[in-house]
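Homework help board

Subject: predicted structure for assignment chain

Our instructor gave us this sequence and asked us to write out the predicted structure in token form, then describe one feature. I got the tokens but I'm not sure how to describe them. Can anyone check?
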Amino acid sequence: MAQDRSLSFKEGQEKNIVGNELHSYTLSLTKGDFVQLHLRQQDVNLQVIISSPKKDTLKGFLANFRKEGLEIVEFPVKKSDTYTFKVSPFISRWLKDSVRQNFINNIDGSYIVEKFKVFSPKEYKALQKFRKAQQDSVIGWIQKKSIPLSSVVAETGFSDLSYLKLLLQDVQIVGMGETSHGTKEIFQMKHRMLEFLVKEMGFTLFGIEASHIGCQPINDYVLYGKGNSRDALSAQGFWIWNVESVIDMIEWMYRYNKTVADAKKVKFIGIDTQTNGLELAYKKIEDYIKKTKPHPLLEVHVDLVFQNIKAITDRSDLSDHRQQLYTVLSYLFVNEMNLITKSSRKEYHKVLADLRKIIQGIEVADRKLRNKVDG
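My token output:
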């Protein structure tokens, strides 16, 4: 690890950082001081580690998991001493061997010291007082303006949500975000909101950030009762959605759909391009190629292409995977009439659509392609 010594923080200063470089900044601080440091990241995800002269790690900062934006460091000093602030790219411990080295080799970014100040004990107390007043003001505004909910649990009535009818009367899309993935109460409230939007506002479609292909088994279950909710949910490939609160919502959709006409039934779709949850598409395409007896023009083995995709660990350059998929796509285009004759127009176009979704997922995941497009 390369180390840059004898550095000092200066507002407006920009530093390049490449590979696994470590930039060390030394500060002499007094008990009661407060350090405020804002680093503007540019094409690199930084971590900042503060250590004592004994090399003990006192605190680490890695709040912004993106290559852009601010990394904010705030450090109250509890003992007068000399401290080292180590700035380096974040390299996940889960990256191993050649994948790790390739990741390191591709790190080439910079950061700007956007803000740096050491508050004296007196200034720090004044800052705390100011922040407390701000917090109290925000809390007071929320308490004054907010409308309390009676429950986050579905099927408990809508009296506390009735005010939403006027707000949403002409709205066609309602976004429901979350502060964390997998939290029970958050998804329970989404379930309750879905019930309200369906029963009171006439909505008929639930979309989630997951693979469109991977969510097809869920949609088949809620609409037609095919399979079971647990296997269907597992097929979408994301552990963050594979929880009991989502199962409860899917079961509610299934029960509700059995009581209404087709036009009012609620669908469940994935709205994202992913490399997860594509098993169903792999199987459909493999089966279709076998059924139609592949022509010698097909220069790749489809099952091996998909096996290689499933084994991907390094997404820095997926050019070979993309090229193999484009080869399969070209084969389907060139042999359209022959393939339709051996199957059906509907089946052909379904397979074509599934392959395109796989390609979209790989293109989105390919960092080299993304950097080329962004550049």
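Reply (TA_rk): Your tokens look well-formed. For the description, you could write something like this. Residues 3-125 form a domain with the Jelly Rolls fold (CATH 2.60.120.380). That's the kind of observation they're looking for.
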